[in-house]
Design a protein that fits this description.
The protein is of the alpha+beta class and 246 residues long. Helices cover 33% and strands 25% of the residues. The chain folds into 2 domains: 2-21 and 163-243, 3-Layer(bba) Sandwich (FAD/NAD(P)-binding domain); 29-159, no CATH class. It has helices at 2-5, 34-40, 52-55, 61-80, 99-114, 128-134, 161-174, 236-243; strands at 11-13, 29-30, 41-43, 57-59, 85-94, 124-127, 150-159, 178-180, 183-191, 206-214, 220-224. β10 (206-214) and β11 (220-224) form a beta hairpin. The longest helix has 20 residues, at 61-80. The chain starts with a helix and ends with a helix.
Length: 246
């Protein structure tokens, strides 16, 4: 869609139906990655006092960058497609005393990093009674004897991944792209290739298109392109071997 809306000529080929594979098997979450935020401030040793909660921390900037980028994408997704996205609350139980301030700070930092792109309700703490009311089967005590103290409620986004997939494909078609489902890749074509021998005439081969097969009619179609993108997920290596058989 991005290429088509920028004026490029685009062709999309799908072996089955759109969103019938991996695209429809996601978590349906549009999350900023709060667990990465927690990993950015990992504790070097278990705290012994309230002062140790913030004193014994290790900072990892890489995780913060991931969270920042993910929050930006979350906001873009929710704002651009409000008709198929919604906020979803998630509850993280708290069992140890020092987790209460840590969880609160983590949640508020998560909200702060979203900034103006905070498109979901802010995080908040709830008491033990509320946590058990929402989840009666929640574990009340850990194996170490730590009692449930409360929980942190943090919000992320949820989407309909199948509908989003189709929406993106149809928007690309409206912008001039060609999208064909039930078409499988038969072979790749290469620049400088000898039609008689079927091998490169010399030098490094460059993929310049593909031969696809209409699985409903059996018709073969040759598609020429300046760039061919291998976006086949778990089948990427099998397609790559077509271009690099060695």
């Amino acid at each position: 869609m991005d290429c088509a809306t920028r004026g490029l000529r685009v062709a999309l080929v799908e072996r089955e139906d759109f969103a019938s594979g991996t695209s429809s098997r996601s978590t349906k979450l549009i999350h900023g990655g709060i667990r990465y935020l927690a990993q950015a401030f990992q504790k070097s040793i278990p705290p012994q006092s309230v002062f140790d909660v913030f004193a014994n921390l290790r900072f990892d900037r890489a995780y913060l960058d991931v969270v920042s980028a993910d929050l930006e994408e979350r906001a873009f997704m929710i704002q651009s497609a409000p008709f198929m996205t919604r906020p979803i609350p998630m509850m993280i139980p708290i069992y140890r005393w020092w987790e209460t301030p840590m969880m609160w700070v983590t949640g508020k930092l998560y909200d702060f990093m979203a900034g103006r792109s905070l498109t979901v309700p802010p995080s908040h703490l709830i008491p033990r009674s509320e946590a058990l009311y929402q989840f009666p089967a929640l574990k009340r005590e850990t194996a170490n004897g730590d009692q449930l103290r409360g929980a942190l409620v943090v919000y992320d986004g949820q989407m309909n991944d199948t509908r989003m997939n189709l929406h993106v494909a149809l928007t690309a078609v409206q912008s001039g792209a060609v999208a064909a489902n039930h078409c499988s890749l038969d072979s790749l074509t290469f620049s400088g290739e000898s039609k008689q021998e079927g091998v490169a005439s010399g030098g490094a081969r460059k993929v310049n298109g593909a031969v696809v097969v209409d699985r409903l009619t059996g018709t073969k179609i040759t598609v020429r392109a300046k760039q061919v993108i291998n976006a086949t997920g778990v089948f990427a290596d099998s397609v790559r071997r077509m271009a690099e058989p060695g």
